[in-house]
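Case study.
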Amino acid sequence: MTPPTPALEIDLAQVDRNCTAVARYAAAHGLAWRPHVKTHKSSRIATRQLAAGASGLTCATLREAEVMATVCDDLLLAYPPVDDDRARRAADLATQVRLGVMLDSLASAERLSVALVAVGATARVLVEVDAGMRRTGVAGEAEAVALARAVTALPGLAFDGFGFYPGHVRTAGSEVDAELARLSAFVLALRAAADAAGLEVRTISCGSTPLLWRSHEIAGITEIRAGTAVYFDRTSVLGGVATWEDCAAHVMATVVSTAVPGQAVVDAGVKAIGREPLRGGAGEGFACVAGRPEVPVVRLSEEHGVLDLSQTDWRPVLGEVVRLIPNHICVAVHCFDVMMCSDGEVERVEARGR
Amino acid sequence: MTPPTPALEIDLAQVDRNCTAVARYAAAHGLAWRPHVKTHKSSRIATRQLAAGASGLTCATLREAEVMATVCDDLLLAYPPVDDDRARRAADLATQVRLGVMLDSLASAERLSVALVAVGATARVLVEVDAGMRRTGVAGEAEAVALARAVTALPGLAFDGFGFYPGHVRTAGSEVDAELARLSAFVLALRAAADAAGLEVRTISCGSTPLLWRSHEIAGITEIRAGTAVYFDRTSVLGGVATWEDCAAHVMATVVSTAVPGQAVVDAGVKAIGREPLRGGAGEGFACVAGRPEVPVVRLSEEHGVLDLSQTDWRPVLGEVVRLIPNHICVAVHCFDVMMCSDGEVERVEARGR
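After joint prediction, the assembly is written out as follows.
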């Protein structure tokens, strides 16, 4: 009997090896490791990260934070509580755990302050700075220091430092050395500006899995948040951050059609693996077959993935189960309600939803 | 108090208007209307489609079919039951409802036959034919007739006709007339081959929302399955199939950052709207703001969407709630566990999952 597919399969032993590797790296370089839980959305996996040495957890959604509060007493909400719902829920969390919040606007800080005061709690604040990605974060050290000062003046908030996400830096390109030097200069300028303003900076939090193993080359940071590293994915491997063997999460899929020559169709489509491109020209497709990296999923419908067989002699048969390594595992995980763990347990992806 | 975002919002009155429009069109052209439920994954929305005149429902996953069996006694599983799990669950369904199955391989037909015989049930079969999309479906009328004959010989199966999905034909291009003529020739050749083989063809099932209003120009079909038309989406509007006012599903999002000039960041990213491209050069981005089609979501992270404000004087403020129209609503719906309906009810997207 083949299992129902598509299904998300988690290799817990590999998860533990990945956690240990990151923990050792962080410890060797004097960095705190606060993994982002967006990748797994599971308190069970988070528990393994904490056991391996994580100093706390990073969350994007309030749902993630509320679930993780059941297993961890030190959370960073890396998302601004700009609306009433987030501010209220963040304040409630601050009554239960040591809460940090990363934000980039006075409006968010003020709203959070009001919500914290209402429940008699406090939160530490990291001012988010744009390190070049141009997504969120204030621009430059002058604005960062101005917001930090404003935060210091608000009740319930304790300025703790700065945070940024260098999502624009990819390891696949040749400019990584220059980007790391730019990030170092950026952090040191931030520190100098804060010092000049008399602000005490305890934390400078940075995080991305593509840059994971080179984080220590960014001068002045205190913490890394890399999330994807718990599972790794095709992007990680093609970016040189991991090997195929390091990949701890797979999407199991069944070959449902071989009617069109030169390809095989599996039952994992956009609704199972997402439509995340490889970046930096590292290759084509949205996933590949585990053990057969030369077989990419080149086209997707909602419930169909098309395997390109042009670079292989392998001819999968109807009903055969294959394991896929998605380009971006965080998005694939979000497609599933449950994960099939290697110890036989079926666990909910419990921090899905809002 | 602003609502928690991102959230999926359904306008039930517009759903009903869309259902009525498709039902009238189908009736006017003597076509059965069997909408694909992948778009909404909700028995409540399906019930409205049936009330408007749908002759039955189309499903891709067994989960969809099992949920829809609670509100409809005539289902088409438009996905091959090539594995044990699907075959067994399809056979169980065939004991409860009139079940049709679309398949493109003898292996699927044989497996389904065995499963049906085991429970003493029968199913009608549509042989899936590739109409040019090169995803699934046997190639051409000779193979189709051969598979139809094989199906006829298998216990538990009743050959009922053919099905195809013309997903390769987009209305944005100028070649639609020629494509419709090709599809007509394709269907007539199928019918002629089946006639010559002495096979009775009751059903020829076709479906895509881009071609919806021109379905009657495809000679010889009996049924349409358009799913997206229940909600429509940005692709539908830019493809000329619907107006912005026809869009019945929106993703509500909150502006969480305006720190980077020229843009605003909302809390709907890949995990809320998907990363589905517009096809056929119809435009850029992954969604647009309702009422402001000139404001696209041009970049996505997992929980961030970046609104490009270069074509508007509108400057949304932090905390403002905007309504987004995703490129592909079926994928956005799959990102949510619940939908906020216009009658105030919060309904589960109950046929998510497997």
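Observations recorded in class. Residues 51 and 304 of chain B are 38 Å apart (CA to CA). Chain B touches chain A through 67 residues (CB under 8 Å). We will return to this complex in the next lecture.
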